[in-house]
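#lab-general

N.A. 3:47 PM
ok so I finally got the sequence cleaned up, no stray characters, all 107 residues accounted for. can someone with queue access submit it? mine expired

B.Y. 3:52 PM
send it over

N.A. 3:53 PM
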Amino acid sequence: MKLNTNRKSFVEEVPYGVYVWEMPNGQWIGDEDGNFLNIAAMKGDPKRLQQLKDTVRSYGITEGKPFYLSGHRQVTDEEYEDQKRRMQFGLVPDELDIPALMEEETR
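B.Y. 4:20 PM
back already:
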């Protein structure tokens, strides 16, 4: 018996994330330091999407669209450095990455 695997769907691990602004060529809007224009939001939140659109338009950008990154969150430069240190020690980099921590516990 062969299983039908044609109907695959992506299941979000968590209901939160961030939206970045993706240009038609696939690049995200950001500065020279690699900090991307983003907004924390629940997927599909119309109020947060409008805030991102308004911000992008204020910079004179008229093309592109919001792109959702499930489970991602905004971090400060200090938090990022802490995450890099944790990763070097073999730990889950983000102490607030609950799904990864739960997976680590089941190993």
